[in-house]
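Practice problem: predict the structure.
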Amino acid sequence: AVALVALIALPLGAVALSLKGESVRAVEQAQEAITLSETLGHTATRVLALAYLTLILEVNGDTDRVLLESERALALEHEVTSWFFGLAHAMHGWALTRQGRPEEGIAELESALAEELRIAANIFAAVIGALLAQAHLRHDRLEPARAVLDQMYSLVEAMGTYVFEPELLRVEAECRRIEGLESDARRLLLRAIATAQQHGSWALAVRAAVELARRPSAEHEADLTLLGDLYEHLPSDNDTDYGREAKNLLGPMLTTK
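Answer:
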């Protein structure tokens, strides 16, 4: 029983670490859970740990590893029933959209979202919805992206507090930018940053701040200052796309980290 609790707690804690920007520790802790589940021969919790690892790797921006680990999880579909396969399928689809296979990836994301909605796994559904909307936008599909976001907001409102809400706000900001509504996009990104800060989610705060600082505006210097302040919350061994993008944008403003 103690081992089972650890098998569940370790990957959940790893996700929390990843949101704080502790990318290396997060991956290591998820891998520890995977190894423990393999040692104990507990397939269901191995699927859980692998699925959460793919989520952590998506936050980190490690597309190749997301594809690899999601395929490891999905190889177990014939052995056990688990609602975590929906998350693994979604992360696999996301990785495909990033590797030049948008039609296949979007179809897998849509299927995974439908399954999570069917079983009322709304937390995962909202994560997947943000990824799906972002994939639509990346391939010039504004209307489908808007429809998914509207659906996800209705889920989030029912939840009250939702730690991944900044991702929905960040993707919605991209919709507004495409529509030419720059002031709305800015407002949404600032809201995403504030919401992430409230949750101590420095990873999501920096991701939103990177989007803000990329855009030319009268407030560009202030945006860079905000990004710099948020970047300072990341550990020195942060190994993520968002950390590298922040560092590139900040350039000489950075103190040695």
